[in-house]
Amino acid sequence: MGSDLREETADGPAVRGAEMIIASARLTELCECAALLRRTRARSEEIVDEARALLEEAIDDGDLERVVLLREQLELARAKYAQILDAYMRILQRITEERQEIIEGQLNHGRISGLSGVA
Would you say which domain of life the source belongs to (predicted)? Predict the structure, then answer.
C-alpha cells in the first residue's frame, strides 16, 4: 500500500515542480562552472603565449640553459591548457544535455497534461 502512494505522487505537479527546480539549479551551477572555466581557459591561453614568447626570446639570445627550461615550461603550460579545454568542453556538453532534459521534461509534462508541444 505504501508503494501505491508513492506511485501516485511520483507524477504529481508538486514532484514535477520540484524536479524542475532541481534541474534549473543544476543547470545554473553548470553555467557558473562554465563561466569560471572560460576565464581559466582564457588565462591559460595567455600563459601559453607568454611561455612561447619567453622561449623565443631565449632562443634569440642563444641561452641554451634557459631554452631547455622554458621548453619544459611551455610543454607543461600546453598540457595544462589541454586539460582545462577538455574540462570546458565537457561542461558545455553537460549543459547541452541538461537543457535537452529540461525541454524534454517540459514537453512530456505537456503531453501528460493533454497539452500540445506548441502550448
Answer: Bacteria
What the block records as the C-alpha cell of 63 is: 641561452
> Hey, what's the cell of 46?
595567455
Binned at pLDDT 50, 70 and 90, residue 38 comes out as: very high
The mean pLDDT value of the chain amounts to: 85
Report the alpha-carbon distance of residue 80 to residue 104 in Å, rounded: 36
HEC profile of the chain? CHHHHHHHHHCCHHHHHHHHHHHHHHHHHHHHHHHHHHHHHHHHHHHHHHHHHHHHHHHHHCCHHHHHHHHHHHHHHHHHHHHHHHHHHHHHHHHHHHHHHHHHHHHHHHHHCCCCCCC
pLDDT: which is higher, 7 or 62: 62
If one compares 4 and 48, the residue with the highest pLDDT of the two is 48
Per residue, what are the HEC states of 89-104? HHHHHHHHHHHHHHHH
